[in-house]
Amino acid sequence: MPKWLVRLKGERFDLEDFPKLFCSPEVRIIEENDSFYLESSEFNFLTEAEDVRERGRILIKLINGVAKYNRSNFQGISDDVIILEKDDGKRKNYIFLGGKAIIRTKVRGKLTVLHHDGLEKSKIQTSTSDFEYLLKKAQKYKVVADALNFYKDDTWINFYKVYEIIGDDLNGKHKIIENNWATNSNVSRFTQTAQSRAILGDSGRHASKKYIPPVKPMTIVEAKILIKSILSKWISSKT
After folding, report:
1. What is the pLDDT of residues 191-215, one digit of tens each?
2. Residues in contact with 124: Cβ distance below 8 Å, sequence separation at least 6, in sequence order
3. pTM score, two decimals?
4. Disulfide-capable partner of 153 in 25, 158, 162, 168 (CB 3.0 to 4.6 Å)?
5. In angstroms, rounded to a whole number, what is the distance separating the alpha carbons of residues 158 and 136?
């Protein structure tokens, strides 16, 4: 049957290990001639390139969140060209300009999947199961997908949004402390620092002077460590 592919755009450093890390029917990344493509069983019953692009972007958003959670130096990927490969090997390339797809067609052989040689690289710090585990949780729970999406950007506002999403999901931020996922002092340092314009300037959540900074403000590195720890424990609590 015809097959849809989404060509991915991003740094090779970020993409080159994905064929080993994302290899389920729902989210599969392959490499062909130095380009990387997203395949998904969710594309099987779609007939329009616009629909494939829309669904592909949802999956790419999940991939970005999962990858950033596992790799702090991950830069992010996006969609490039939508491709329909027919049974006879002919391909139609859908390039979107100004919201409309322009079709370019060429004849090619069957898609060849090229896997990496499996050599260990210093930047690989997580296994396939780590990525698949997070991806499945993000697909099952929208709140997890939302939290991972905000976590991928290292800003105080985004870290605070992750904190708020978790608190709302628990029916109260106090549950984070009650569950022993963080200490009251660390949470207080985080929230007070995040809300303080005196400490963070325009990066703070509020401009009002009533938000008093903590005696020992938290650094952005400390905030990231704290939020990732809370995020990890919260995700693990979901069955």
Report:
1. 989 887 767 665 656 555 666 777 7
2. 17
3. 0.70
4. 158
5. 22
